[in-house]
Amino acid sequence: MLISAFKTIFFVFLLFIAEFSVVHASGIDLLKQVDEVRAPGADFSFKVKVSASDGTVMTMNVSMKDNTKGLVQYVAPKKTVGRVILFVGRNMWIYIPGSRRALRISPQQQVLGGVSSADIARTVYSIDYAVAGVDQVKGGQLLHLTAKSQSAAYGKVDLTVNMSAEPQMAVFFTKNGKRKLKTVYFEDYRVVLGRERPTKLRVIDHLSGDDVTIISYSAYEIKDTPAAWFQPSYLSRL
Amino acid sequence: MCFFQIKSLFILVKILLVIFVFGLLPNLALGQDTTLINEISFDTSGYISAYGQLTDNGGTDLVPNPSGSKYSGKQEGYDVVLQMRLDYQKLRLKSQIRLEHAYDDTELLMDETYGEYSITDQVLFFAGRRITAYGQSYGLNPADILHDPLQEVKIYPSDKSRNDIEGTDMVGFDWFTDNNGTLTIFFAPSFAGRDNGDKEDLLMIRYAGFSLEGALDYGLSAFSGDRMGFGLSASYGLNEATVLYIDSSVRYGREKKSIAGYDGTGNLSIIPADEDAIIAFATFGAGRSFNNGWSVNLEYSHDSGGYSSGEWGRIEQALAIITPANSAVMERSLGQLNNLLDHYMLRKNYGFIRLAHDKFADFDLVTEFSLLHSLDDGSGSIGTRFELPLSDNVTAGLYGSLKYGGSNKEFTLRPNASALAFYTMVKF
């Protein structure tokens, strides 16, 4: 009797582990596919235009290296020219030309409208977020992502993808996962470097009366930026 | 009469040389060799700024006659800053020239001019005058050892006031290592002097690095010079919105002189700066950014070289004895005391708070409140700034400051207890 009960519990436990592993593994694979849609490789560059609802526009050149390093150079408007944001692993710095030094900032630091520095300098999710679960939704899947560390920009992300693992919408939450901060729609899919990728992000800032900020991507290029550029001490030279 | 006063013929010669190199060389190259000009990248930028300031110009015990000591109830100034950069293959030349008008004087200054050569992708050799800055702190920054904050025009935002200074003449190299570190070694000879007033040759060895996993960066330095010592800076990302940081230095020798006593006629007995003292200076800070766009920094600073309560008490007593200065001896003592107290900070313990927003009240109003408070005598300085962009490259700003704490406290020793300034900047 006791042995039979033990066998049943063991069997249920195995089933649970197997189920969890399948969901977990498929979720990770799916997230990697999503990342491959957004990032055409480990080393590449592109241009970003951020347009806020009040008409303010900022333009930046972004260089990525090893997927974990992002370098954002402001090119317009004039008052921001020369600013650089550097994102390496869990570190983020800003260089403002007159200050003559790179200062550590938090990923939540805002760039324009509802757009944070992490939204610009991070093109992949798998570095900062783990897959907590996957739900089937109409036309695709919903990935529930949770922050891997305290320094991730958001506590929780609900990412909806279509059947081709192309991101459609992401909802970002606070650290405790309860408050909705912003919703991002991935739009204007075009063939860029060999596959369809979103070239426009529509960001709805729920903390500012659902203000809309548009992030437009262009001029994607596979490019190996020198490693030294991704050091805070180098930013004054860019 | 000269339109402006040039510090020395040497500066003028250097500026002419810079203009020649940055301006004429590419043109000459264009005429001679189109391949060469295609490889040359030349960029200029800069800004024109002007301000007007109204201040409360009442005399104090230390400065009883403000107008005779370069203090004025109304003051205006302007400056033109031209920055140039020329890149040719592995060589880069950079320069910043500044024409500055203040206190009825106009000066032409060469803040920065240096050449940099990439020996490899990871090793850069440099020589010339450079403006450098270290550390993370916003209020008092012990790690920024080559800089004296007294040189800054505080009316302007910190990125301009920190930039518009004369750099340090140096020769050295940067090595960007494979493990995300930077080793910097430079030698700054004493012949040209430095903005912090140091007079001896200085050798600095500095290593800066960061952790990929831990959201941590750090800088360690060792330096010789007038007050040799060590520096340590570190910052740590605690979570998605909070940053902790420390900037510190331990130096050999105290820069402040103190008073041993005084006699009935007002003669001061001054104790020279203790060259054997070990002085520790540290700032501990935390910064947090909020979802609504505000960011706040809180800092605590301790300087073991600051005046103790006993030393400050003797300074206050001396001031009481020699003011009003109605004899030649007292006049001389007042001058000595002015010289003795000519430091950016005087006491040991400070608190600093900064609140900032880049886009306050639904339009691009840059808003900043700051407070530097002496925890030793309760005096302090409050600063408020509002800056509005008028176009892509033109901004207008209003800056107000108020010093409090009662008479003869650290922040109220000198005139201009309150000030209101209007400024505008045009970038080109």
Textual characterization of the structure:
The complex is a heterodimer of chains A (238) and B (428). Chain A is an alpha+beta fold. Chain A has helices spanning 2-38, 117-121, and strands at 44-51, 57-65, 69-76, 84-88, 91-95, 102-104, 110-112, 115-116, 129-137, 140-147, 156-162, 167-173, 180-192, 195-205, 211-222. Chain A contains two helices and 15 strands. In chain A, the strands form two sheets. Chain A has a 13-stranded antiparallel beta sheet with strand order 6-5-4-3-2-1-15-14-13-12-11-10-9. A two-stranded antiparallel sheet of chain A has the order 7-8. In chain A, a hairpin with a 2-residue loop joins strand 13 (180-192) and strand 14 (195-205). Chain B contains five helices and 21 strands. Chain B has helices at 9-32, 34-39, 158-161, 309-322, 328-340; strands at 5-6, 40-55, 74-88, 91-102, 105-118, 123-130, 168-176, 182-188, 202-211, 216-223, 229-237, 242-252, 258-262, 268-271, 278-289, 294-303, 349-360, 365-374, 380-389, 394-404, 418-427. Chain B has an 18-stranded antiparallel barrel. Chain B has a two-stranded antiparallel sheet with strand order 13-14. The radius of gyration of chain B is 23 Å and the shape is globular.
Keywords:
heterodimer; A: 238 residues; alpha+beta; 13-stranded antiparallel sheet; two-stranded antiparallel ribbon; 2 helices; 18% helix; B: 428 residues; mainly beta; 18-stranded antiparallel β-barrel; 5 helices; globular
